[in-house]
Amino acid sequence: MNADRKELAALSPEERQAVILERINTAGRVLAAPLAQEFGVSEDSIRRDLRDLSDAGLVQRFHGGAARLVTPALDFHRRETLHSEEKQAIGGAAAASIPHGATLLVDSSTTIVRFVRALSPTLDVRIITTAVDVAAAALDHPSAEVIMLGGRLGRLTRSATGVAAIDAIRALRVDYCILGTCGVAEDMTLRADDYEDALLKSAMIRAANKTLLLATAEKLGQTATYEVAPVSMISTLFTSSKNTAILKAIRDVGIDVEAV
């Protein structure tokens, strides 16, 4: 046993859990078996650590490991400053794939605001959205027709929600849905933290001929409370993730992946 492993093996359960929590918050997820080997303890001990962290509301457990919790309570303007270079790259790559004359049904997220801003100013598009910030960004586009769907505005999503918004979306048939997500879970489902937002996103996917999912690296492998749809309903994922295992799993269900 090398010196580093001896030091890890000597940690108390509380100290070990603190190290594991830091690892999860940095990497996004951990697996029990490699942790057990690294710390020189049994997998049962690691599973107890992960259970304790989950019971404390600090992580989300899944079979064989645990993931960082999605934190939905961040203010929109705070979220806009996080991972800004990743969001710019993702938004730019997705924007470059949009053809002239397309009708877009556009979700609410800070990454998607970057997408709207990255659309070529000469691109003739129709942008339909429930999101306040997306509509505001789209109004700055000189060639876009902008349609704002109404409903009750959610403070977290800064988007119209509720029956009126969902009914309006169900009446549409568009070329592309441009979607954000709170997480792409290990079971290959898209997740949302808000129930009404999950219903809205689900309706948007079903209203589109193709769905482009825009997700920063930390969203892959993450979970959240409500299921939106199976990942298999997505056409293309634009992401900054370099996690080859989860990208392979997504490709294996038939999704095109554009890693930026």
Describe the protein in words.
By secondary structure, the chain is an alpha/beta fold. The chain has 2 domains: 3-68, Winged helix-like DNA-binding domain superfamily/Winged helix DNA-binding domain (Arc Repressor Mutant, subunit A), CATH 1.10.10.10; 76-259, Rossmann fold (3-Layer(aba) Sandwich), CATH 3.40.50. It contains 11 helices and 15 strands. It has helices at residues 3-9, 13-27, 32-39, 43-55, 76-81, 84-95, 110-118, 132-139, 163-170, 195-206, 244-252, and strands at residues 29-31, 59-62, 65-68, 103-106, 125-129, 144-148, 152-154, 159-161, 174-179, 183-184, 189-192, 208-215, 226-230, 236-239, 256-259.
Radius of gyration: 20 Å
Which blocks of ≥5 consecutive residues have pLDDT under 50? none
What is the architecture of the largest domain at the second tier of CATH?
3-Layer(aba) Sandwich
Distance between the termini: 40 Å
Largest sheet: 7 strands, parallel
CATH class of the largest domain: Alpha Beta
Note the run of SSEs as H and E: HHEHHEEHHEHEHEEEHEEEHEEEHE
- Principal-axes geometry comes out as elongated
Residues in β-strands, percent: 15-25%
Would you report the number of β strands? 15
- Helix fraction, binned, reads 40-55%
Number of helices: 11
User: How would you write the strand order of the largest sheet?
Assistant: 6-5-4-9-12-14-15
Q: Average pLDDT value?
A: 89
How do you describe this structure in short?
This protein has 260 residues and is an alpha/beta fold. It has eleven helices and 15 strands.
